[in-house]
Design brief:
With about 230 residues, this protein is an alpha/beta fold. The protein folds into 2 domains: about 190 residues, TIM Barrel; about 35 residues, no CATH class. The chain contains 8 helices and 10 strands. Strand 9 and strand 10 form a beta hairpin. Helix 3 packs parallel to helix 4. The structure holds zinc ion. Zinc ion (ZN) binds next to loops. The site of zinc ion has 3 residues, from loops.
Length: about 230
């Protein structure tokens, strides 16, 4: 695990994500096999032993990288946070969050919760309620698209995710914060996510107010990329 994280750090990755459990995550279920068109060989996922999880997190931190952990269950989420993770990818999706001390732990350790509702919403009915619960408690939420995961569309999933966050009970402003400064913080990109002098000018200009209706994110007027206008619908 340490060698792998060093290998990735040497290749200048932005962050480390560890999978602590297979995405099916059901006790006694057959091994979870992950298939993705981008990878020629199917990958069997098993629960990562705790010492591996700790080693991966520690090594990432030694190399100055944030380390997040893919989880779907409360027990795995707790284990990841206790092992030192900076964030939970997906969070708790396959069961309702019934353990309030887990939410307290998220707040205490200042972890970021990245829901990826567009993937889990249809198959896991508890996902939305869990997002609302942690958002209401004040846990930091980041909008992450997980678009690479097979059936995604870059850009489109981000808009869908922002809308689903609001459908889950977050306010439009909470959703916008998750998509901008929340995500920038999670990725350790202080140059992104806020509009201020000295920041990178990556902006979209909308023709309607997204704080009133999050779907107004689709009312694109202009896209400015690193200070250059690249789309202009005026
Ligand atoms: Zn994941």
């Amino acid at each position: 695990m340490r060698d792998l994280v060093h290998h990735l750090a040497d290749r200048k990755v932005d962050a480390i994500k560890l999978l602590s459990e297979g995405a099916c995550a059901c006790a006694g279920s057959p091994p979870y096999v992950w298939r993705n068109a981008a990878f020629p060989v199917a990958v069997e996922l098993v629960r990562l032993p705790l010492d591996f999880l700790r080693s991966g997190i520690e090594t990432g931190h030694e190399r100055g990288l944030r380390v997040t952990v893919h989880t779907t269950q409360q027990a795995a989420a707790r284990e990841a946070i206790e092992a030192g993770a900076d964030g939970l990818e997906h969070g708790v999706t396959v069961e309702p969050i019934t353990d309030h001390s887990l939410v307290e732990l998220m707040l205490e350790r200042d972890i970021t919760y990245t829901p990826t509702l567009w993937i889990h919403d249809a198959t896991h009915p508890d996902t939305r309620g869990n997002v609302k619960k942690v958002a209401d408690a004040g846990v930091r939420i980041a909008l992450g698209s997980d678009t690479f995961s097979g059936r995604g569309l870059f850009g489109a999933n981000t808009l869908e995710e922002a809308e689903l966050m609001v459908a889950a009970g977050m306010t439009p402003v909470q959703s916008l914060v998750a998509a901008t400064s929340g995500a920038a913080r999670q990725c350790v990109r202080p140059d992104l996510g806020t509009v201020a002098p000295g920041k990178r000018a990556d902006l979209i200009v909308l023709t309607a107010d997204p704080t009133q209706d999050i779907s107004n994110l689709r009312a694109l007027g202009m896209t400015i990329l690193n200070g250059e206008i690249v789309v202009d619908k005026r």
